[in-house]
Every structure is written in C-alpha cells, then in structure tokens.
Amino acid sequence: GLTNPDLQNLFGLDQALIGLLYDWGELPPGASLPFREHARIECELGIVLGADGAPIALAPAIEFVHLNFATPEDFTPANLVLSSLGADSYLYGEHIAWDEIDLDVIGNTVIRLERDGELLQEAPADESLNGPTNAVAWCLEQAQMQSLDVEEGALILTGTCGNALPAPPGKYTADYGVLGSLSFTIEEVLM
C-alpha cells in the first residue's frame, strides 16, 4: 500500500507499506459487489510465488479497498497497517507463466479502466514499485523483515497502477492488454 511516492510524502513515509490479503476476500472474475460509499478500486498486477519465493506467474488484478475511519486524524500509517491497508476483497484473472512474460512488453502496457463504457483511467502497468520484478523483491524483503511466512502459491499484489478510484455502481472492465481483462459489477444497494 501507499506505493505512490506522493502519498508516501503526504504521510511522512520514505517507502510503501505492506498488508495482507485474506482468502475470504478472493472474488471470481465477473463478480458483483454491493456499492459501499468509501470503497475504492485499484488496478494492480498479481504475482504468484513458487515454493522458493520466486515468481512463477503474473495476472491482471483488481483490489477493492475500504477505509472508513471515524475522523480524519485516524487516517495514519499505523492505522492503515492495522487495517491491512483497507484490503477488503480482490479478484485476479488468468495467470501467465513468469518465464513466458516479456517484461519489456509489460513495461509498455497501459491498463484501461472503464465503467459503463466510459474511460475512467489509463495507467502504465509498471507504475507501482517500478514494475513487477522490483515489486516482488520489495514485498519479499518486507515480508522477511516482518517475519511473515510466504507460502507456495502466495499472491502478491504490486500496488496501485494509477489512482485508487471511487466505486459507484456500474459495469466495469479493466483491460490489461497482453495480460487480458477483468470485469466486475458494483450493484446499487436498495433499501
């Protein structure tokens, strides 16, 4: 989390923060989620690790972040870590074997997020932590420093490519170029 240097500066940090993803938060591609006022959508890359901690696959990924602190003063790095950086749920697409990936192509890939056919954002796929190779190295270093176990098949999300965007109701598609696309729906909650 907070992989954007501008956000790090805002919080007085000199590096990003690491959080955890929980199995219960995994959603299938095409999922429908209820609208939540403070939810945000983050386009990311998902990296699957092998038994030795080395990357074995790459996939398009979306993280749904939900942070709703009682007061603005509560929005601190410590509280972000305690809330696992707001990681609420996530989905990811088809994996591509790491040894079949041309990282130069990924570096030139632009992720396009649309809602109901309207372009919301375009962002370079290697924007977060300077690309997937650096993201894996940084995440594994942070995990080791914090004595976190990294198991075979673990999924690492690289951090937001572009901005974390509000999530109003609609049908969304994130196009990751050569990595494929992901679709999901945010449903209006009727009361």
Give structural notes.
Helices cover 16% and strands 35% of the residues. The protein has 4 helices and 12 strands, in the order H-E-E-E-E-H-E-E-H-E-E-H-E-E-E-E. The strands form 2 sheets. Strands 1, 3, 4, 5, 6, 9 and 10 form a 7-stranded mixed beta sheet that branches. A 5-stranded mixed beta sheet has the order 2-12-11-7-8, with no helix packed on it.
Unreliable segments of 5+ consecutive residues: none
State the order of secondary-structure elements, H for helix, E for strand.
HEEEEHEEHEEHEEEE
What's the alpha carbon Rg, rounded to whole Å? Answer: 16 Å
> With helices defined by DSSP (H or I, 4 residues minimum), what is the helix count?
4
Global outline: globular
Distance between the termini: 33 Å
Task: Please describe the biggest sheet, giving its number of strands, its sense, and whether it closes into a barrel.
Answer: 7 strands, mixed
The structural class is: alpha+beta
How large is the share of residues in beta strands?
Answer: 35-45%
Helix content, binned percent: 10-25%
By DSSP, the count of extended strands is 12
Q: How would you state the average pLDDT, rounded? A: 82
Topology of this protein?
Elements: H1 5-10, E1 26-27, E2 32-34, E3 39-49, E4 55-66, H2 77-82, E5 87-92, E6 96-97, H3 103-107, E7 110-115, E8 118-124, H4 132-145, E9 155-157, E10 165-166, E11 170-175, E12 181-187
Summarize this, please?
The chain is built from four helices and twelve strands.
What keywords describe this structure?
191 residues, alpha+beta
